[in-house]
């Protein structure tokens, strides 16, 4: 099975002329097994987004390596990697269907138009937007727009999904529903997931494993294995282990969040 991510001694220091260096994170080492769902939580500013950008290949780390299925990722996003960001990344001038088709039409491989139509219809159905295929993003709610971003990524059949706080701008109910959808898409696709979130509840609810990052420079402080079954839903929040897991994460994160608050202007 593909989608095995290995991160080795990864570290990033931002340097720009005339300014003090900012040690964003690391060194950190971790892996995500094929089909595994791993989340990273950490205080704001600890280097989570920087870490994910280095993992994706969008940014070059100061040291360390990232491997996907044994292949080194350097300076470009691997075709088997899909990304979803916090901010809605759909093109406002394209319809929902054209947004989803974009990567297939203009990507590395030539995909026949008929196949694109089929894949787009399938993706629309998966994220429940079939009736909105011809709408423009501005005509949709925030949650629906985030589903467009998700469909756009999934249609490329990634082996590894990288998500940076994809639900952060949504209200709580929408977040829960999106979490449920993400779990369903994760099960269907068989892809591995690395999710960044500042919500401990979200991390525990969705993940097989949660990694806790320290205040900047972000280091991995703690690892929690949830032990959930693969066919979990949002009602896992009523499981007797759920609050114990959230409390265990908070016990580690609390001190880090205080440190982060004191050291940030
Ligand atoms: N381009 C940059 N140049 C210098 N510092 C940066 C740059 N981007 C982010 N930072 C700093 O790096 C640290 C980590 O940022 P980020 O990865 O966005 O954290 P998080 O996602 O955990 O909130 C922050 O202190 C931020 O101000
Ligand atoms: Mg961030």
Describe this structure in words.
The chain is α/β, with parallel strands linked by helices and 265 residues long. The protein has a domain at 9-80 and 158-233 and 246-263: 3-Layer(aba) Sandwich (Rossmann fold). 36% of the residues lie in helices and 22% in strands. A six-stranded mixed sheet has the order 6-7-8-3-9-10, with helices on both faces. A four-stranded antiparallel sheet has the order 2-1-4-5, with helices on one face. Helix 2 packs across helix 3 (113-126), helix 2 packs parallel to helix 4 (142-154) and helix 3 (113-126) packs across helix 4 (142-154). It is globular, with a radius of gyration of 19 Å. The structure holds adenosine-5'-diphosphate (ADP) and magnesium ion.
Concise description?
The protein has 265 residues and is α/β, with parallel strands linked by helices. Helix content is 36%, strand content 22%.
List keywords for this structure.
265 residues, alpha/beta, Rossmann fold, 6-stranded mixed sheet, 4-stranded antiparallel sheet, 22% strand, binds adenosine-5'-diphosphate, binds magnesium ion
The assigned CATH architecture of the domain at 9-80 and 158-233 and 246-263 is 3-Layer(aba) Sandwich
CATH topology-level fold name of the domain at 9-80 and 158-233 and 246-263: Rossmann fold
Bound molecules: adenosine-5'-diphosphate, magnesium ion
Strand order of the largest sheet: 6-7-8-3-9-10
Give average pLDDT, whole number. Answer: 92
Q: Round the Cα radius of gyration to an integer and report it.
A: 19 Å
- The end-to-end distance, rounded to whole angstroms, is 45 Å
Low-confidence stretches: none
CATH class of the domain at 9-80 and 158-233 and 246-263: Alpha Beta
The CATH homologous superfamily of the domain at 9-80 and 158-233 and 246-263: P-loop containing nucleotide triphosphate hydrolases
